[in-house]
Amino acid sequence: MTHEIVSLIGGKEETSNGTAYDSVNPARVDEVVARVRLADAGTFAAACRSAAAAQRDWARIPAPVRGRVIASIGRLVEANAEELARLVTREIGKPYAEALGEVREIVDTCDFFLGEGRRLYGQTVPSEMPDKNLFTFRVPVGVAAVVTAGNFPVAVPSWYLVPALLCGNAVVWKPAEYAAASAHALYRLFTAAGLPDGVLNLVLADGDATFEGLGTALAEGTVHKVGFTGSTAVGRKVGELCGRHLQSPCLELGGKNPMVVMPDADLDLAVEGALFAGFGTAGQRCTSLGTVIAHESVHDEFLARYTRALSQAVIGDPAGDVLCGPLLDRKFATRYEEYLGWIQPHHTVVSGPVGRITPDNPRGGFTGEGGLYYHPVVVDGVRPDDRIFLEETFGPIVGVTTFATLDEAVDLANRPGYGLSSSIYTTDPKAAFRFRTGIGAGMVSVNNSTSGAEAHLPFGGNGNSGNGSRQSGMWVLDQFTRWQAMNWDYSGRLQKAQMDVAEIVPDLGFRL
């Protein structure tokens, strides 16, 4: 019997008869992981009201105590790491080693933020008046509505949920439908740590219902911060909706991430980085490698090594030791086939077959069967005006082009208008810092892949990749708190700023 999961609001299951959605295993598309009962827009708005009612009491709990709850979440996730990783692998086809690393990211996030409950510092500021003190305080924003993608179904949500809860907010979380079982498991781990009912709510809904419900909640004043991870196109709509209600969302969107290979690069290291960045998670990361920008003097050798390494990589069953497994879901497979249509006659596919891996279109050493598996593709000869160069291609496809000077490489890297992640391979510190100065990306790697994040470093992008907001580390606290200023005058009289300030008159004409 297929396990059915439903939304959880105020600690209770939402039992309304919504549309049924089957979350399937993309490695074996005839296997249903869970039947998901999708909620409507009214349910999403009701969840926001429930969160608003619960948030007040949660905010009254001292921040160090909330930090202990975060510590408990970390220990619970750690104790259940293997089971949660296996579920992630089964539901979205992510290789098990990557899924286990994703779960570890939740633990790292909790380990960082458990102490932030004792460090939600404000400041005592000197006043320009006597007998008066000035203070600043971090206060929770209220209710955060968090909408996440399914390619990182548990790690990326934790980047929102952990700091939001620590700071005294309540959360309404809408995960991707195709990763609903993983989200449901993570919700249960969070609430097992002792979160009061209504502080964390899970709403399983499609995009249209979520957008409509979010609009209602913003109009009612029951949502005070929106966090969204997903495509640039949808991020623009979320940003416009929030803007109408004078809110600034936290947007983590797509990427077209460049990797520059300099003449002095360690080519084997660059190949290793490009292999993981281009085809880990089957190229379905916002930080996946988009285009290799190789110096014309090393282009041919890099490409030869890259294609050789790719041909030797194992693709298939994500439960095994593979470079990548299937695409996440049928809708991503359909979209990826559209991206393959962007390959033009002036391009050269140097990686071998293109399209879905089947008995009629085989791949050597393939270990999968019956899933949404696609050949990894490397396209040489891409040009700056090509669609495949300018737009995100969410899937296992990497473009390659050349440059003559570092300034040209930086221009090419910035041209698509995204600004999430970037990478340069070089042994010259001057080149590394010139690249860092010129690139518009929010994250820069030197001699490392475009993919990868640590819990105590800011994560986020600019341009088409986001609105400059940052997740992770102490920087995300600015997303889930607002600054409050207080002045305390104990002089016993009204002192008017800028008007009643004592003046000490200097002799500005003095000369030695």
Layout of helices and strands:
Elements (H helix, E strand, L loop, with lengths): L3 E2 L2 E2 L2 E2 L5 E7 L2 E11 L2 H20 L2 H17 L1 H12 L3 H18 L9 E4 L5 E9 L2 E5 L7 H12 L3 E5 L5 H13 L7 E3 L4 H14 L4 E5 L2 H13 L5 E3 L4 E5 L5 H13 L9 E7 L3 H14 L17 H11 L7 E2 L27 E4 L6 H4 L6 E7 L2 H9 L3 E2 L1 E5 L3 H10 L4 E4 L15 E2 L13 H4 E9 L23
Parallel strand pairs: 1-5, 8-9, 8-11, 9-10, 11-12, 13-14, 13-19, 14-17, 16-17, 19-20
Antiparallel strand pairs: 2-3, 4-5, 6-7, 7-22, 15-16, 18-21
Structure report:
Helix 2 (63-79) crosses helix 6. The chain is 36% helix and 21% strand. It has 2 domains: 41-253 and 466-486, Aldehyde Dehydrogenase, Chain A, domain 1, CATH 3.40.605; 257-455, Aldehyde Dehydrogenase, Chain A, domain 2, CATH 3.40.309.10. The strands form 6 sheets. Strands 15-16-17-14-13-19-20 form a 7-stranded mixed beta sheet, with helices on both faces. It has a 5-stranded parallel beta sheet with strand order 10-9-8-11-12, sandwiched between helices. The longest helix has 20 residues, at 41-60. The radius of gyration is 25 Å and the shape is globular. The chain has helices spanning 41-60, 63-79, 81-92, 96-113, 155-166, 180-192, 207-220, 232-244, 267-279, 299-312, 330-340, 387-390, 406-414, 429-438, 477-480; strands spanning 4-5, 8-9, 12-13, 19-25, 28-38, 123-126, 132-140, 143-147, 170-174, 200-202, 225-229, 250-252, 257-261, 289-295, 348-349, 377-380, 397-403, 418-419, 421-425, 443-446, 462-463, 481-489. It has 512 residues and is of the alpha/beta class. Helix 5 (155-166) links the parallel strand 8 (143-147) and strand 9. It has 15 helices and 22 strands.
